[in-house]
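hey so i finally got around to running the thing on that chain from the lab meeting. sorry it took forever, my laptop kept dying and i had to restart like 3 times. anyway pasting the input first so we r on the same page abt which one it is
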Amino acid sequence: MATSSAMVGALKLLVRERGMTYRQLAEALELSESAVKRMFATGNMSLRRLDQICVAISCDLGDVLRKLEQNLQRMDELPLDDEQALVDDPQLLLVAYCMVNHWTVDTVLKRYKITQTELIRCLARLDRMRLIELMPDNRVRTLVGNNFKWQANGPIERFFRSQVQVEFFGSTFSGSSELHLVKMGDLSRSAQERIRQRLESIGQLFDEIAEDERQVSSTERHGMTMVVAMREWRYEAFSKFERDEG
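ok and heres what got predicted. didnt touch it at all, straight out
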């Protein structure tokens, strides 16, 4: 059954497809831009407001329901062999990253040393994986859902741990837009759960902002990676100082 948040997500996609910014929508609704952003972020929207937004972007409830149905059919996980195929082919993995982040074919060709023939080959393969839908004139529709995730301990996660993670944490994190926090302390189970929930909400915020940023030209966007991790752990070298229990 469709939830209200899924309905709002479908409406958000329609707003983006119409090329309307939150500021423009706010002006049409006679609201502040912050109020519109908060409305979409919280999903707190009345049926009357839904109707007003539909009028503003020239659609109706039927369009919202059709978009919702498309979203519910989106890919939320790849089979293991498809994940392995991405790991085995760096060019395919690169194109998959670009398409999931809504790059155009022209932008990929301008940015990377990939021929049009090579790019079409990759797009056709991603189409067979159902990560994208390759449409006429080499237009692409991404089929990855908001709840998409890599398989636990699958090829992508192992690839990330063995190669990407090592390279990522090799930085000094001294750039103006960079951040590296390491916090240690003794926490109760309830405190651990509170922090875990807060970190999950930060991850959701990252996804929401990244989704909103798709309205910005790809030349003005820069690849950013955020890794948030927390687990019960003590430095191994400390273990030799611990007293035996009993």
